[in-house]
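Feature request, filed as a ticket because there's no other form

It would be nice if the structure record came with a short human-readable summary line next to the tokens. Right now we just get the raw output. Example of a typical job, pasted below so the devs can see what we mean:
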Amino acid sequence: MNVPLLDLKPQLAALRPQIMAAVTRVIDSTGYILGREVTELEEKIARYCGSGQGIGVSSGTDALLAALMSLEIGPGDRVLTTPYTFFATMGTILRVGAQPLFVDIEPDNFNIDPEQMAEALAADRQAGRRIKAIIPVHLYGQCANMQRIMALAAEYEVPVIEDAAQAIGAECPYEENGIVTWHRAGSMGLCGCFSFFPSKNLGGIGDGGMLTTSDQGYAEIVRSNRNHGAEPKYYHSRVGGNFRLDPIQAAVLAIKLDHLEAWHAARRRNADRYRQLFRDAGLVGSPVGLPQAIYGEIEGAEQHNHHIYNQFVIMVPERDRLRQFLQDHAVGCEIYYPLCLHQQECLRSETYRKLSFPVAQQAAASSLALPIFPELTDEQLVYVVETIRRFYRAG
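Raw output as currently delivered:
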């Protein structure tokens, strides 16, 4: 049996007539830069995320870059973030000339640890410096602890840029006076940054991204910066870039957005089925250790349904050998991410190389992503778990 890590063909087959009609409409219009399709998608995404504004951009990376540029963050500034995420989170900080400041992650969900953030913010203030922004990452489709993060941001007067590239539609609980309300990724910080890379739950047919915000003034600056800082045309009060979302991508994404909740639900069903199969196979705990919020038994399972499972990640011993075994048996899998950001060669600094983030480094050494896309069959899910069981039984 073949189980790919991701198969986009079933999704395309179901929507192909609509997508082809939409793409043809854009081509025939000869309006190839921004326009009605982009505006309509911006409005739909803003409503979906619970934000006031949506600004379509060329990628999730450019959403982060525009967010930082629009805060005028640059050389000498420090940005607090996680060492365990995709490179773009750090890469955009470096591109504006700022310095990433890392703290470790929580072991049960792989997201940035708010209490270590609190220590870093306090130390920064005591040293007479000032962290200029915080970028929490909602990794794998699960929100970071935004209630605590936003409280810290308010205390230290630091803007929050949500890296929600993997988390469109994910929700975070806020509890006040015993009442829990849920807030969608991208609606809690100053802004949220989304990616529409094809592998995302809401993926385009190429690169694309979106920045959401409820700050009207900030939205105007971002819109200017995505178009070379021009306001009006050919008059440049700031130096921006070419970060515009393509209308063909917008037209396709608008069609797909209508199906997003159903795809989220299917991913959750697959995650639940994985949990059941792993329990039945005797793989929960030893020899396979799995983070509670990603995989293990969870009290209050209904709250767990706010995870959108862009990835389904397990923590395993002998990860690299298991990965090879799965690939040898036609099971797609991937390592997200094999190296922490502070260990990347491009930093070329002993200051970073001497840092240690034990939880993040253990995740990088032990994590493995399994297929979780909506169209997986039960037979495929059974085969994935049975193949893992065979690996550990043979070992």
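Something like this underneath would help us a lot:
The mean pLDDT is 92.
The CA atoms of residues 57 and 245 lie 4 Å apart.
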